[in-house]
Amino acid sequence: MSKFTRRDFMVSAAAASAIPLMGASANAAEPLKVAFIYIGPVGDYGWTWAHDKGRKELEAALGGAVKTSYVENVKEDASAIPVLRDLARQGNKLIFATSFGYMDQVLEVAKEFPDVRFEHCTGFKRAANVTTYNSRFHEGRAVTGTIAGKVSKSGVIGYLGSFKIPEVVMGVNAFTLAAQAVNPKIQTKLVMIDSWFDPAKETAATETLANLGCDVVATHTDSPAPLQFCQKKGIFGFGQGADMSKFAPKAQLTAIQDIWGPHYIARAKAMIAGTWKSEDFWDGIKEGAVQFAPYNASVTADAQAAANKVIEGYKAGTYDVFTGPIYDQGGTLKVKAGEKLGLGDLATIDWFVKGVQSA
Amino acid sequence: MNMTFIIDALVTVIGITTPILLAASGELVVEKSGVINLGVEGMMLVGAIAGFAVTFETGNPWLGVLIAMLAGASASLIFGFLVLSLGANQVATGLALTIFGVGLSSLIGSNYVGIAIDSLDSPFPDDMAHDAFWRIVFGHSPFVYFAIFLVLAIGYFLNKTRAGLVLRAVGENDFSAHSIGYSVIGIRYAAIAFGGAMAGLAGADFSMVISPLWAEQMTAGRGWIALALVVFAGWRAGPLLAGAYFFGVLMALELYAKASGFAIFPSQFWAAMPYLIAVIVLAIISSRDGKGGTAPACLGKPFIPNG
User: Is A131 part of a structural domain of the chain?
Assistant: First the structure.
């Protein structure tokens, strides 16, 4: 429905362009125009909300030196191409595409606009004017997995995913491996709902997992609906992308918070300074890109200690959840004892670890 | 696979089916009067934010439900004015209503992101739904009971009451109905307002029961499924009820199969399933012309008296 996205774009661009006109000093340099395309609505209170928070932090930090706009609800199909093209023609010099499925569209448009810089979130294809950036969310998943392993009484944990893409697969694996590290009997039941944002289906899937005996349900979709269901049912979950404790104070054990602002600020500054170049960013707990909401009362002292150990391990560089031996679902040894899965392997991972039950 | 498990699964099915059933029931009445309103998704979203906002501000969910219905009806009357009084194209106007509803609900809703309310739960005392079996009878939100009552009442209304027959007459042959003295425009206005109210109610089910929060476009396309369902049911209330639950069972089946690790079909097949069914159903409908269960004859045509 490109009609919505075009409309939203016009509104936000108009709003963004109106402000700097007021009281702008005559000799101020032309502000850097920065645009964002989002997979969901900015009001999802999850993934897109976190990116938009980063955009606002960028505006706050650089003030009149930047002018930002965004287009929300851009589908991960060919319709992203005209949106990107329009943004480039509007004079945006730095464009952030914030979902995996924009990967090839970004590369195609980047070829047509060599003087525009693109940054693609969570992808793995780069070009001279295309940077990729990501967060090591799997580190966060290792922390929540540790807590889930400690808190679960049934030993069966649910995992609500969106699509079978590397970003989701590595999260499922990190979560399961970390849970198994504290409770070797842990089984993860995985449901992919083929959508990033569909509160009704997310709720139904969480209900399904709860009915199948899961007492902790982790989510990799974008709304707080699953947590609300957990709260109602008396089971546990984790906030995804943002602190969702307001929706489910008892159910949210902690939340993985995505912190994008520092990256957006650094990259806009690099553009202004003329030092921007194509790179591959992959920040994590250590750099502050992945942070946690406070533990709630159901996270026992024992679970807190175990989770903190993982966090400290990542900060110190002494811990990696993807350290072998790691077996896949069929029991084949994929990573030998003492070896690790590198970021390069993770970026294209398409197999689940032993203990993950998926269809 | 024990009894409790099946009941739990049925509770899931009923939960996801209800808003579709509500919206589709309303649209059935609208289409029976000869008007097609493609704005269901937009009206649902307007109802969703209205119900949520009023419940949050006043703490009274029943007031929220009432305002959600009024909001849906008001949105539908904009459509009604354009297509009935001004004779605008119904398909284009309906699509515009959806776009309007998406935008308006996002605008109003921007102040309500990140807030939760208590869900509107079963009207029966908890201990009545304690046992697994009784949960299926007493364990639902008021929306569930109302939706089933609604579709049965509409079936009765359309087939057994004089007013229902008049409504159908307006949808089948507007000039004849007009010539014997019925107000075609007035009846269609009433049908459109009713459809809007039911779409608003369906939206409130999303924002007050299924996931008691506001998120932009939280209905995620269910309005389109409701529209498809009316066609699927051949514009009849009984098949509408069955069809809605059929969709619900399919979705629950998908989730249970995936969560249980039964790779009955690959994930892509599940994703394609609703479209596949839609194609099959449309093929069946187009082959049964003249045998009942077809579209009202005046569906989508503007009525201009003496025109």
Answer: yes
